[in-house]
Structures are given as C-alpha cells and as structure tokens.
Write a structure and sequence with these properties.
Elements (H helix, E strand, L loop, with lengths): L1 E13 L4 H11 L6 E7 L2 E8 L5 H7 L3 E13 L4 H11 L4 E7 L6 E8 L2 H15 L6
Antiparallel strand pairs: 1-3, 1-4, 2-3, 4-6, 5-6
Length: 143
C-alpha cells in the first residue's frame, strides 16, 4: 500500500457539449497529467474534480482560462487490486474518527494495483493513519 497527498481541484463548469473538452485541452497544452477525475452534474451546471501530482500553480492556470475552482488535498491510496481493500481503508479511517467527504478511484483489468482517491475532513490525520497502516503491511525483514 502506498499513500500520497495530491492536489485536488473542484472545477465549476457549465453542463453543455464541449465543456470538458475545453478543460482537457488546457491540461494537454500544459503537459499536465490527470491522475483521477470524477464529475457531478445538476441541471445546467457541473462540478469536475481532478487529482494532480504537479506542484504548478494550477489555480492561476484555471483562473486565467476562465474556470472557477477550489483547491484542496486528496489522499491517493494505492492498494492491491483485490476485494476488501476499500473496506480496509474506510474502516481504518472510521476507527480514527475521520470523515470521508469524497471518494473515487480506478483499476484496470489485469492490473495488480488500484488507486483510491479520498478527500477527508482532516487530511493530515488521515495521512498518518494510512501511513501507519501501510507500514504494518510491509513484510518483516526475516521473512
């Protein structure tokens, strides 16, 4: 298991053809890789959440391109691609009294690992809990 803090941008967009294409073009032009993406749509507006590893000033880039956004942190948790991994992570955070506000992720057929992206109310504490969990997953030196 591997845990990282990533930047997450919640980007407010109109719900109309081409809106996501315009956003994707912006990231493509700047050579920025998107590690995770999720969206919600209500009536004529949408919210797209994008997780990125880059430390560039994405907020300024989005603003300059006419997008309104909010920057937060999200935890990227790489786990083995097998049943029960989300349960382990959610149980550990629940035991630590950490509230999960957003979760999304991905896996692909035949992959050994999956990525869970989790936004929580206390990112630093959640990171500590998951890091301790990852350390306890490591095999002992003797075998």
């Amino acid at each position: 298991m591997k845990v990282e803090k990533l930047k997450q941008f919640s980007i407010f967009m109109p719900n109309r053809p081409g809106a996501l294409s315009r956003l994707a073009a912006l990231f493509h032009e700047k050579g920025i890789s998107i590690l995770g993406i999720a969206s919600e749509v209500r009536d004529d507006s949408g919210l797209v959440r994008i997780a990125l590893a880059q430390d560039a000033d994405i907020s300024a880039l989005l603003s300059k391109a006419g997008f309104s956004s909010v920057e937060t942190h999200v935890l990227s948790v790489e786990v083995g691609d097998r049943p029960g991994q989300l349960l382990r992570v959610a149980d550990a955070l629940a035991a630590g009294k950490i509230n999960i506000t957003t979760v999304y992720g991905t896996s692909s057929s035949g992959a050994q690992n999956a990525r869970i992206l989790i936004a929580v109310q206390n990112t630093d504490r959640a990171f500590e809990i998951l890091e301790a969990m990852a350390a306890s997953d490591l095999p002992s030196a003797g075998g």
